Amino acid sequence: MDFVKVEREGSVATLTIDRQDKLNAISPQVVEELGQSLLELESQPPTAIVVTGAGEKAFVAGADIAEMSQMSAVEAKRFAEIGHAAMALLDRSPVPTIAAVNGFALGGGCEIALACDMRIAADNAMFGFPEVGLGILPGMGGTQRLPRLIGSGLASELLFSARRIEAAEAKEMGLVNRVVAQGEALNAAQQLATEISKNGPLAVRYAKAAANKALDVDLVSGLEYEADQFALLFSTEDAAEGMGAFSEKRKPDFKGQ
Ligand code: COA
Asked: Whose CA is nearest to atom 1 of ligand 1?
């Protein structure tokens, strides 16, 4: 891989988009590498995935405008499709995903952050959807995931105005979970990933699947799904271990089984 690095520390995987001379802007190759890296992780799944950008200045400054300016409509459709596929691998990853937003997260950068379950921003992070100012629109899920996350009114403002917002405003809108000092986003995201990893891995996976379901189906169907997942966990060794450890006043030793 030229532009995506994967590191594992303990059971947590960190994916770094590294194309610093272009502020980590994502070309079709970068998107393909991101998708490929996520696919490869599925064969030996971590307990959580952190996604970040290399350097102090940018998370991802968007899709590569120089490459997009040369695309035909057919090529643009293909770019959107590979983008959607990569974002789906993040969104539907069986394990929790956290974006560590360490600088500019514009356009496609914002869309990558939106495809993660959680977002932690450094206080120098800058968010926005500049696409309409370029005469195009967000093509990696932004028009769909942003209204689901922050509601239609605020999403419309960001999508239609192309206005850039700072981390504090992003927090106020509910676009990010937390704002930390510059240079601390990756640390904070990895700490959260480690905290998540102390829990029953199957329980966390099923909780993620159930929480995802909430965005896709009506309440009654979602509750039915939750009840099924809840019951299923009672057949696992982890549930016996977790509840047994509580009774025995000790820390659980989860095996993910
Ligand atoms: N696509 C392609 N190249 C990009 C890029 C993008 N989205 N974002 C930054 N770059 C490149 C610049 O062209 C420049 O390359 P160069 O040194 O070969 O000229 C390099 O990254 C550094 O960017 P620069 O613009 O010089 O940095 P800056 O600090 O002055 O400005 C930004 C930073 C993020 C405000 C500015 O780069 C920008 O507006 N980028 C485009 C953001 C965007 O519209 N993204 C959505 C695309 S759909």
From this structure: 64
116: in domain:
yes
- Band (pLDDT 50/70/90 cuts) for residue 166 is very high
166 is catalytic: no
Judge whether 135 lies within some domain: yes
Is 131 in the active site? yes
Tally of domains within the chain: 2
Asked if 115 and 67 touch (Cβ cutoff 8 Å), the reply is: no
DSSP label of 34: H
99 located within any domain? yes
Q: Sign (positive/negative) of CA torsion 203, 204, 209, 210?
A: positive
Do 153 and 192 fall within a single domain?
Answer: yes
pLDDT at 191: 98
Range of the domain at 238: 201-247
Contact 178/121 with Cβ under 8 angstroms?
Answer: yes
Whether the CB of 65 sits within 6 Å of ligand 1: yes
Rounded to two decimals, what is the model's pTM?
0.97
Q: Is residue 19 part of a domain?
A: yes
**Closest of 118, 22, 18 to residue 62, by C-alpha:** 22
Number of Cα atoms under 13 Å in the Cβ half of residue 87: 22
Read off φ and ψ for residue 9, nearest 5 degrees: -130, 115
103: left (phi over 0), alpha (psi -120 to 50) or beta: left
